[in-house]
Design brief:
Strand content: under 5%
Number of helices: 3
Helix content: over 70%
Radius of gyration: 16 Å
Length: about 90
């Protein structure tokens, strides 16, 4: 019998990919993706389901998306603060 794939792991991967691709909103999607990935990992262990690779990939994509979005926001803030001073 094949174990059922955890749906939260698929959701976390989707949110992680969207957090990389969508500007500004991706920061919030990444945070939600990290939470859902952690929840999926716990459910997979508890219910003996498959999808741990998807959950780990979702966690990694979400963290990368958060860093990319933070860098973009900070870059824009620095650009406008330097531009207004000069």
């Amino acid at each position: 019998m094949v174990a059922q794939t955890n749906s939260n792991s698929v959701i976390s991967l989707t949110l992680g990919i969207l957090s990389i691709l969508i500007p500004f909103i991706g920061l919030f999607l990444g945070c939600i993706g990290v939470i859902v990935a952690r929840k999926a990992t716990k459910e997979i262990v508890h219910n003996n389901q498959s999808g741990s690779g998807l959950a780990i990939s979702g966690l990694i994509c979400s963290v990368v998306g958060i860093f990319i979005q933070l860098f973009a926001v900070l870059s824009i803030l620095v650009f406008y603060s330097v531009r207004s001073v000069g």
